[in-house]
Design brief:
Layout (H helix, E strand, L loop, with lengths): L5 H11 L2 E2 L2 E2 L1 H5 L6 H17 L2 H5 L17 H4 L3 H7 L4 H5 L3 H9 L13 H11 L1 H6 L5 H12 L9 H15 L5 H13 L6 H5 L7 H8 L14 E8 L5 E9 L2 E10 L4 H14 L4 E4 L7 H6 L9 E2 L4 H4 L5 E3 L11 E6 L4 E6 L8 H7 L1 E5 L5 E5 H7 L2 E9 L1
Antiparallel strand pairs: 1-2, 3-4, 4-5, 5-7, 6-12, 8-13, 9-10, 9-13, 10-11, 11-12
Helix pairs in contact: 11-12, 11-13, 19-20
């Protein structure tokens, strides 16, 4: 951007006081004492060039125009490729003062275009993913504070009924549905909910049909019980794989699971067993592409799926083709001293170890160590060691331990040596 001297800035202010809707007024044309003709032409050209980038009214009160606000990061650059997770998050955070001056429509646009929006799939549930977006993104923090968010979000969703590109806007739509579901739905009227349902039904080529449908599950309890009464009896009770069904179902991530217990290492943990509702091939490809764009230096291992999670991958089975268990807390398995030796918190990491990343909220994310760490402190251990883990439902990936530790809000980690 050009740098102006104090004299030129004074001239610009004088000139702009005579400008209305980018037209030079008669008073300005008659002003003879401001500067010579050459200076006038230079100043007028500068103002016209600036007006293409900034709203004149915004310049008058010192605000930047909405069209100039965005994510000024080249995600195809070498610099972005080499960023840590924390650096990526910071690079996409827009100053709160700038966001405060934007319309809710603009803030919503920025939220739907958030470059790390694929994080919605990287946790145990979509709701956890949405909460994490609010935690890490100043845009989402600003968005959920707006009083007119419901009006703007429902209007934007209604537009999808007539203008929706299932290939180019799939993630935007999922994020918008997350805002509606987790932020707005409880306070929506019956008519507003029906409007959302109507818009959803009118969207063609919708690969995310079940996502918004899950919103009305609580209002269809009887029909769900009837539907699930058809689950084969052979899958109930204790199976050869150690799973015991407790007689109820769960529906996280728009899929259906048996709720029960898994017995292994002489211990028992609560566990879900997948029944139906996994991603389609198109959905898996879309998630893969979004993850590759957001995290280009993470190494992809296997596709997105709702059949198993990180804890199940580490503590039950690393067979990604046959594992169908969702294990929320593996702590009891780690306590099986005949099978594992628990190491000190934040110790060095060694190839083959199982590791629990524990967050301040008490949630646990499990990883397997691929390469041993080097260095003399926790930070060095994590930045030098590569681990493999299932990122929610988004697929299996290899990255630095430090990335996953930050991603899942680690407070500390506990390594376990496999005996």
């Amino acid at each position: 951007m050009a740098v102006f001297s104090d004299e030129m800035l004074e001239d610009i202010v004088v000139l702009m006081s005579f400008i209305k809707v980018k037209k030079i007024t008669k008073e300005y044309k008659e002003e003879k004492t401001m500067c010579n003709f050459k200076m006038k032409m230079m100043i007028m050209g500068t103002v016209l060039a600036m007006s293409a980038l900034f709203d004149i009214s915004a310049l008058a009160d010192g605000k930047v125009s909405e069209s100039s606000v965005g994510y000024d990061v080249d995600i195809t650059s070498v610099e972005y490729y080499n960023m840590s997770y924390d650096e990526r998050v910071d690079s996409f955070n827009i100053d709160a003062e700038i966001l405060n001056d934007l319309s809710t429509e603009k803030v919503l646009e920025l939220a739907l275009d958030y470059p790390l929006g694929v994080n919605i799939f990287c946790f145990n549930t979509y709701e956890e993913g949405f909460s994490d977006l609010i935690r890490i993104s100043t845009v989402y923090q600003e968005l959920v504070s707006r009083d007119d968010l419901k009006e703007c979000a429902l209007q934007r969703y209604a537009e999808y009924e007539h203008e929706y590109d299932s290939d180019g806007e799939w993630l935007n739509k999922v994020l918008l549905e997350s805002i509606i579901r987790y932020q707005l739905w409880p306070d929506m009227s019956f008519d507003e909910r029906m409007d959302v349902a109507s818009a959803h039904d009118g969207i063609t080529n919708d690969i995310w049909a079940d996502y918004i449908e899950e919103l009305i599950i609580p209002y269809r309890t009887m029909s769900l019980q009837t539907e699930n009464s058809g689950i084969p009896l052979a899958n109930r009770g204790i199976a050869a794989d150690g799973f015991t069904w407790g007689g109820t179902w769960a529906y996280p991530n728009s899929a259906t699971y048996y709720v029960g217990f898994y017995q292994k290492y002489g211990k028992t943990c609560t566990c879900y067993k997948y029944y139906s509702g996994d991603y389609t091939s198109a959905e898996k490809t879309s998630i893969y592409n979004a993850m590759l764009t957001a995290y280009p230096n993470w190494t992809y291992s296997s596709p997105a799926t709702k059949k198993y999670n990180c804890n199940s991958y580490v503590w039950i089975s690393n067979d990604v083709y046959s594992n169908i268990y969702w294990l929320n807390d593996p702590t009891y398995f780690g306590n099986a001293t005949s099978y594992f030796s628990e190491q000190n918190v934040n110790d060095p990491l060694f190839t083959g170890e199982y590791v629990m990343i524990v967050s301040g909220s008490g949630s646990i994310h499990s990883v397997k160590v691929n390469t041993s760490s080097t260095g003399t402190n926790m930070s060095a251990y994590m930045s030098s060691s590569y681990v493999q883990t299932k990122a929610g439902t988004a697929g299996l990936y290899v990255a630095k331990m430090s990335d996953f530790y930050s991603f899942y809000s680690g407070s500390y980690y506990v390594p376990y040596v496999v005996l």
